[in-house]
Amino acid sequence: MIITVDGPAAAGKGTLSSRLAKKYNLAYFDTGMVYRAVGLQLLKGNIDLTDAVAAEKMAHELTFTKMMKLSQDKDFRSAAGGNAASVVSSYPGVRSQLLDMQRNFAKNPVFADGTPAQGVIYDGRDTGTVICPQADIKFFITASSEVRAKRRYDEFVAKGMAADYKQVLADVVARDERDANRKDAPMKPAEDAFIIDTSDMTIEQVYNCAVEIIESKYK
Ligand code: DC
Q: Ligand 1: which atom is nearest the Cα of residue 83?
């Protein structure tokens, strides 16, 4: 089984995807990690984020193992890391270099400990449209920008990271704009995606709604 969960930043994709992965025993690929890995290397190397050639080279050299190692860095999930990921993800050359790595995962999905899995859940922006259009079930998870900024802000605070709500909101809006206006792979729901607006829903409600959709398809 292949499930894709797309949508804007902080809509609740990660939480939903990991719960669904656990319930249906699926490997999980958070595809934002590939862009975070490239963006982080630019930040660490003091390379300007506008250097699309350097970004493309890093994307070309990225391996799954390298990405997992970079994900341990404290800045991988920081606001600066998210912003860098968003910038590099707008370069068509970077996206094309990272396509195979994301697509190949569905051919040989593995759990975090390396053991093989029977299926995969992808989480990202374009996984139902570009990475895995053949997926069995596609979700597009969204919420208002204010709700998403509040969720991201709470996450930073819970992790003890410095955060300012207004700045987080401005970042969310800027990232939405960049993600939605990419020429090659704009963030949009697949035509056959189930769209869930989580603005007024709890995590539990979103999870139950997704499970109901999956179970009704396989009844
Ligand atoms: O989901 P995230 O916040 O980790 O994603 C970081 C950035 O990566 C996001 O701003 C847009 C980009 N991204 C993308 O372009 N395509 C994906 N499939 C996943 C993420």
A: 10
Task: Count the domains in the chain.
Answer: 1
Find the mean pLDDT for residues 84-105.
95
Residue 113 has pLDDT above 80, yes or no: yes
**What pTM was computed for the model?**
0.94
Q: With 80 as the cut, is the pLDDT of residue 219 above it?
A: no
| Strands, E assignment, the chain | 2-6, 27-30, 120-124, 137-142, 194-197
Q: Could you list the residue range(s) of the whole structural domain that residue 90 is in?
A: 2-217
Q: 């920008």: which residue's tokens? A: 145
DSSP secondary structure code for residue 31 in this structure: T
Residue type, 118: Q
Q: Which atom of ligand 1 is nearest to the CA of 182?
A: 15
Q: How far apart are CA 195 and CA 178, in angstroms?
A: 21
Amino acid at 145: S
Rounded to the nearest whole angstrom, what is the distance from the C-alpha of residue 89 to the centroid of ligand 1? 7
